[in-house]
Write a structure and sequence with these properties.
By secondary structure, this protein is an alpha/beta fold. Helix content is about 40%, strand content about 15%. It has 6 helices and 5 strands; from the N terminus they run βααβαβααβαβ. The chain starts with 8 loop residues before the first strand and ends in a 5-residue tail after the last strand.
């Protein structure tokens, strides 16, 4: 987006946001939902100031994502991009060793191991990160933004886009 001339694009990385605004929370269901709500509220503030927020938390529960959509939609268009990476792929890409620690019982409430993940049924776009290269995934998101922009041309003058990118791992 920034390369395409968009100003004020902000990535709200899930790990970074947890360290900065949710360090007081645990990883139980209520805490995870609160974390996602806080990120949505931050994204909403960015969007209301004319920015574009890309929120990238792990948002494992449907109710947390629904609440995030409600919060963000008050000031911006909300697009949910579900990056559907199979658990085995997540484990093979795990640089921090958290999946192995979770399987050993050392990490509790770990998504996909000891805590569930509610697959989104309302995603605007689904990308299987085990087979879709990152460049193609970016193209798919940009196409979605472009299509939504055409659908909401009159809104573009007053609204920024909010993209919620879930479970996309960094290389």
């Amino acid at each position: 987006l920034a390369d395409g001339g968009a100003d004020n694009v902000v990535l709200l990385d899930g790990d970074e946001m947890r360290r900065r605004i949710s360090q007081d929370l645990g990883f139980d269901r209520a805490s995870r939902n609160t974390n996602v709500e806080r990120i949505a509220a931050t994204a909403s503030v960015i969007a209301s100031d004319g920015g574009i927020a890309i929120a990238a938390p792990i948002a494992p529960f449907a109710e947390g994502r629904t609440r995030a959509r409600e919060i963000a939609s008050s000031t911006a268009r909300f697009l949910l991009v579900y990056v559907s990476t199979p658990l085995a792929v997540c484990e093979s890409r795990d640089r921090k060793g958290l999946y192995a620690r979770a399987r050993a019982g050392e990490v509790h409430e770990f998504t996909g191991i000891s805590s569930p993940y509610d697959v989104p049924t309302d995603a605007d776009l689904e990308i299987d990160a085990s087979v879709v290269p990152i460049e193609r995934a970016v193209d798919q998101v940009m196409t979605l933004l472009s299509n939504r922009s055409e659908e909401h041309t009159s809104e573009l003058q007053s609204h920024s886009d909010l993209v919620c990118r879930l479970l996309l791992e960094k290389k």
